[in-house]
Amino acid sequence: MTTSLTEITATVTGIAAAEIGVPAAELAPETDLRGVEGVDSVKVLRMIAKIEREFDIELEDEDVFGVSTVAEVAAVVEKALGAK
Amino acid sequence: MSVQVPWSVLPDYRCFGCSPHNPHGLRLAFHPRPDGLLARFTLDRGFESYPGVVHGGLVGVICDETIGNLIVLERHKPAFTVSMRTRFVTPLLVGREYRCVATLRADGEELFHGSAEVLDADGGVCATASAVYQPFALDQVRHQLTLDDAEVDLLSRAINPTAINPR
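The joint structure predicted for all components is written out below.
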């Protein structure tokens, strides 16, 4: 079963919203998650850890530290799902 | 109430992770959960890395230990870790209580896939781990384990009490 980029983006948005404490409606694909007020590196890593568990994937560290926007996170998730 | 691990039938087992007989070990105790197994732990300065920080390798040990015991308790087979990946989210601090929660993926007979999270008192994720395990029969690893025949029988029955011939 494949998961579409739209579905991945929706799931990533939900997890990101919960982890950084903002309503999902405030997050767009182009939102820079690291730039959201109150977001630090721990919150970003907790979001990544939740995403990895949700999709049962292991993201490359270079990808984890290279992404900032919701769309970029969704893209590396899609890449990891494709590699499974 | 903590669950008794099968190894405890050996009066002097020395597992670094879970034996109460190893003075240098972590002495982890495990508690059953509907979806897996939980271990609470607080490490002192004997397990320190940077001042005040628990050595990161021990986070891996605790995750491995909790997943490994979940496997033997749930699948009734001992297993060796064949690969493990840990994501460190935030340092663990000496003297603070944390809990490790392990779960198993439902699939897999030849290889078991487990994962674990280490959480702080507020439920924040401090580390995650995913690992793969290969089950083994005690008889097939006799050259690696220091167990006599009586101990193999005892341990086999403890690991899988319902088997007709657990060895």
